[in-house]
Design a protein that fits this description.
mainly alpha, 75% helix
Length: 152
C-alpha cells in the first residue's frame, strides 16, 4: 500500500484536475506539473525505487500478518467465523487489485508528464522479485479460498 500512497501524493500535486475524459482520450497534454512539484514527485519516486526489495517485501508481509491477526480477532466474535474471514479477505482482494491498477496507471500518467523517475519507479514496481499490489491481491484470494477449509 505504500506504493499507492506515494503515487497518489505525487499525483495530488498535479496543478489541473484529471478527468476520466482526459485519461480516456489519452490527452495528458492538458496535465502539467510545476517545476517544484515535478522535483518533489521525482525525489519521492527515486527514494521509493531505491528502497531494497527485501525491505519492501518484509513490510508488505508484516502488514499482512497484522491484518490477518486483526481479521481472526474480528471473525472470532461472529456467529460464522469462516464466512467472516472469507468475506474480509475478498474485500482485501478488491482493495489490493484496485491499488495495483491505480498505482501503475498513475505512474504511467507521471511518465507522460515526463517525470523521468516514474519510469524507474514503474520498472521497480514491476520487478518480479518485489511484491506488488497484484501479488498481495492473489495472496488474499488464497486466504479467502482456504478459509472454509481451515476455520470451522
Amino acid at each position: 500500500m505504500p506504493d499507492l500512497l506515494l503515487v497518489l501524493v505525487g499525483l495530488a500535486m498535479v496543478s489541473r484536475p484529471i478527468t476520466l475524459e482526459s485519461l480516456a482520450s489519452g490527452c495528458v497534454d492538458m496535465l502539467t506539473l510545476s517545476k517544484a512539484d515535478a522535483q518533489r514527485v521525482a525525489a519521492n519516486l527515486k527514494r521509493w525505487s531505491e528502497r531494497p526489495i527485501a525491505a519492501s517485501n518484509l513490510q508488505a508481509v508484516g502488514i499482512s500478518l497484522v491484518t490477518v491477526a486483526m481479521m481472526i480477532l474480528a471473525a472470532s466474535r461472529t456467529p460464522d467465523p469462516g464466512s467472516a474471514m472469507g468475506g474480509m479477505a475478498i474485500v482485501l482482494v478488491v482493495i489490493q487489485s484496485i491499488a495495483h491498477v491505480v498505482t501503475t496507471g498513475m505512474l504511467q500518467v507521471l511518465i507522460a508528464l515526463r517525470v523521468s523517475e516514474a519510469e524507474m519507479a514503474l520498472a521497480s514496481y514491476r520487478d518480479p522479485r518485489r511484491l506488488s499490489g497484484l501479488d498481495m491481491a492473489m495472496m488474499w484470494m488464497v486466504v479467502a479460498l482456504a478459509t472454509p477449509f481451515v476455520v470451522e
